[in-house]
């Protein structure tokens, strides 16, 4: 590794990727509630992952955190981006740690089996009061 790339090493690089601003809930306190409702495209997601990997050159493990809104509402793209992040990080000699932030409502057997396959950490948001959650 040359000195230019060693100057760029980030000890514990982490990147949070908003795969959608859509949500299946309307919690009064959530910042996603006021965002324009849009899904991340595969192309934008890949560009984001590529740039993060470039910035993190030399790190041992990259932490990819996929969030939203509710990221499971963009399930197809979420899966593609997880697979791409793991493959690309591994190709660059780095490991990939995958985390998902979800409200948990849309979790099903397909999701759980997929997340097991990629050893994902799932963060379930349990917060607020019953009155603040509008379904």
SSE blueprint:
Elements: H1 3-6, E1 14-20, H2 42-55, E2 61-68, H3 75-91, E3 95-102, H4 109-117, E4 121-124
Parallel strand pairs: 1-2, 2-3, 3-4
Helix pairs in contact: 2-3
Kindly list the characteristics that best describe this protein:
single chain; 135 residues; alpha/beta; TIM Barrel; 4-stranded parallel sheet; 4 helices; 33% helix
Radius of gyration: 16 Å
How many helical stretches? 4
Major β-sheet annotation = 4 strands, parallel
Strand order of the biggest β-sheet: 1-2-3-4
Tell me the helix content: 25-40%
Q: Stretches where pLDDT falls below 50 for ≥5 residues?
A: none
Which CATH first-tier class would you pick?
Alpha Beta
Write down the domain tally: 1
Total number of beta strands: 4
Task: State the end-to-end CA separation.
Answer: 52 Å
Q: Categorize the overall geometry.
A: globular
Global structural class:
alpha/beta
């Amino acid at each position: 590794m040359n000195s230019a790339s060693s100057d760029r090493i980030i000890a514990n690089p982490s990147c949070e990727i908003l795969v959608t601003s859509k949500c299946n809930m309307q919690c009064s306190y959530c910042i996603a509630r006021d965002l324009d409702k849009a899904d991340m495209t595969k192309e934008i997601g890949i560009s984001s992952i590529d740039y993060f990997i470039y910035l993190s050159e030399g790190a041992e493990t990259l932490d990819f955190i996929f969030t939203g809104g509710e990221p499971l509402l963009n399930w197809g793209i979420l899966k593609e981006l997880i697979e791409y992040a793991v493959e690309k990080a591994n190709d660059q000699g780095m490991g990939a740690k995958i985390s998902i932030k979800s409200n948990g409502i849309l979790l099903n057997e397909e999701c759980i089996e997929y997340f097991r396959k990629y050893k994902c950490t799932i963060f379930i948001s349990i917060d607020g009061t019953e009155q603040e959650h509008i379904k």
